[in-house]
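Is S-adenosylmethionine placement plausible here? Inputs below.
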Amino acid sequence: MDDSAHDARRRRVSPRLYDGVAGALDHAGLARLRADLSRGIEGDVLEVGAGTGRQLPHHPPGARVTATDPDAGALALAARRSPATRTVVAAAEALPFDDAAFDWVVCALVLCTVRDPLAALAEMRRVLRPAGRLRALEHVRSPNRALARAEGLASPLWGAVAGGCHLDRDTRASLVAAGFAGVTARPHLGGNIVLLEAARGA
Ligand SMILES: C[S@@+](CC[C@H](N)C(=O)[O-])C[C@H]1O[C@@H](n2cnc3c(N)ncnc32)[C@H](O)[C@@H]1O
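Reply from A.M.:
I modeled the complex. Tokens:
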């Protein structure tokens, strides 16, 4: 087991508990953002950190979706939710796929949690085809300075109870640093949640 898979197990949130909370958030409006995340994706699609599979029903029916997560228990729920989806237990930092195997990589609320965002993004770039694209729905460090400071203070405690989630990551900057091109970020909730999209880049 590599370090990231180990981390995910150690700080694991019960998949059923997570699924209940995520379901409530979906009802409260997150489902609309999930629809935006999946809109128009096609071909060979890799969803990283799919968890219990809450994003899977949003993907267009024609897409050939592979879903990964280091938590086998969560992924078992995902497979039940979406039987047509191929599921593979794996951490984002070590994706067990060939180079250039996918047209799209998508993730929802995952780059806040991965142990090493730059290593995870490097893997996502590696498995994308040259014209491939990444799309990610993420909560990120607030553009409001006072709130960002509070997020920084609360993040260690939050991470301990929320599966290693960080409240204060600048994920857009991480995409740029990882070599993605044409990075865009559509803000929601005052910029605290963003829909990121980028090309693989040369
Ligand atoms: C907040 S949940 C989001 C789950 C799902 N994407 C959703 O939208 O409901 C974060 C997910 O990241 C996964 N995760 C944690 N560490 C990871 C890693 N190193 N690589 C990939 N996924 C990871 C967790 O197991 C969990 O399923």
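Short version: Helices lie at 3-10, 15-38, 72-81, 117-127, 145-161, 171-177.
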